[in-house]
Amino acid sequence: MMIYIIITTAIALSMDAFAVAVSCGVSKRANTTYMQLKIGIFFGLFQGIMPIIGWLLASRFAVYIQKYDHWIAFVLLSFIGIKMIKESREKSCDDVGNLTTKHIITLAIATSIDALAAGISFAILHINILITSLIIALITFVVSFLGAKFGQKLGCSFQKGAEVLGGVILIAIGTKILLEHLFIFH
Fold it and tell me: Which parts of the chain span the membrane according to its record (predicted)?
């Protein structure tokens, strides 16, 4: 996978974390640099770990699914994208709650489930998971930190728009993988 696809995927995957970080800023629960860094670190860490877990799970079964791997990648990425778009319409800016470390870890896990599913796609596509996960973690850290930092200024409508954009990007990447496989390899 080319580096621009990895970076684009990382940005798309970080949109859930960004949306939650913006919510933290909008709700004034992340009003210190310390709290904003904490959000960025936890979100980036979990977003980087989850693809590795998904990759490890899928690697054990890659031999059995190679014939259908492009369809699996398409379905998973499209499902994640559609889920992100749907959830952006259901969330309110007040869905954050108190920001204890336990709560931030819970939010980090919840926003990184999509990255677990992407890790399955990465195994199918034979992606270098360590470099990819590092890129995802770093981008998510920066995006989440900035989302929390500027959330008060950006407002709720920007949060929802970012999550919709992330969903559309993931669907587009899944479609690209499918079309490339169907028209190049057959």
Answer: 37-56, 68-85, 105-127, 134-152, 164-185
In this structure, are residues 161 and 31 in contact, taking their beta carbons and an 8 Å threshold? no
pLDDT in tens, 97-123: 457 888 888 888 878 878 888 888 888
Indicate the pTM of the whole model.
0.70
Nearest to 111 by CA among 10, 18, 8: 18
Judge whether 90 and 154 are in contact, CB under 8 Å: no
Q: What is the pLDDT of residues 20-63, one digit of tens each?
A: 788 777 766 677 889 899 999 999 999 999 999 999 988 787 66
As a whole number of angstroms, the distance between CA 139 and CA 87 comes to 22
Phi-psi category of residue 128: left, alpha or beta, with phi > 0 → left and psi -120 to 50 → alpha: beta
Distance set, CA 52 to CA 47, 59, 83, 105, 134 (Å): 10, 10, 21, 18, 10
Say which residue the tokens 């960025």 belong to: 40
Helices (H) and strands (E) in the chain, counts: 7, 0
How far apart CA 133 and CA 48 sit, in angstroms, is: 5
CA separation, residue 88 to residues 7, 64, 159, 169 (Å)? 22, 35, 8, 14
